[in-house]
Automatic annotation (TrEMBL):
Alphabetized PROSITE patterns for the sequence: GNAT
One Pfam entry name: Acetyltransf_1
Keywords: Ribonucleoprotein, Ribosomal protein
GO cellular component, one term: ribosome
Descriptive protein name: Ribosomal protein S18 acetylase RimI
Organism per entry: Chryseobacterium taichungense
Lineage: Bacteria, Pseudomonadati, Bacteroidota, Flavobacteriia, Flavobacteriales
Chain ranges of the N-acetyltransferase domain: 5-166
Molecular function terms from GO: acyltransferase activity, transferring groups other than amino-acyl groups
Amino acid sequence: MNSEIKLRKAETEDRDIIWNILQQAIERRRKDGSTQWQQGYPNINTVESDIKKGFGYVMTVDGEIAVYVALIINDEPAYNNIEGAWLSNGEFVVVHRVAVDEKFAGQGMVKKLFDHIEDFTRSHEIQSVKVDTNYDNVPMLKILESKGYTYCGEVFLAGGMRKAFEKIII
């Protein structure tokens, strides 16, 4: 049976579910021995701010929230200082704070999420998607590679160096 998968803006009522999913992700990164997300970020205030600013999105499976992501258009000051070079200088969508509910883990949800993000980018006539991740976030690095993202260099974000990637959409 095919599930209905949708990407929609997060609403205030989603806050506690989102925070729960992020806490699971923070714990998963810790168990994997990663330094990512281990210094009190993201936190509940991050979630509230994302929702208020309209950055927060959820991917639902048959109406149930499976994945959280922040999508920010043209605004990531850290990306102005890349050690390396972006593929483009046009408009872009920044992908931050990807977290999957453990109930949906191992089902290729993040790959599906990136398909939806690319559709979102295309529908807003935005040139590219930019994303960064920790050097030790192997699952995300593999997904970015499989989705055709190009490694562009390093950016300094949230207290550390991150690998930065871009994919031209239009």
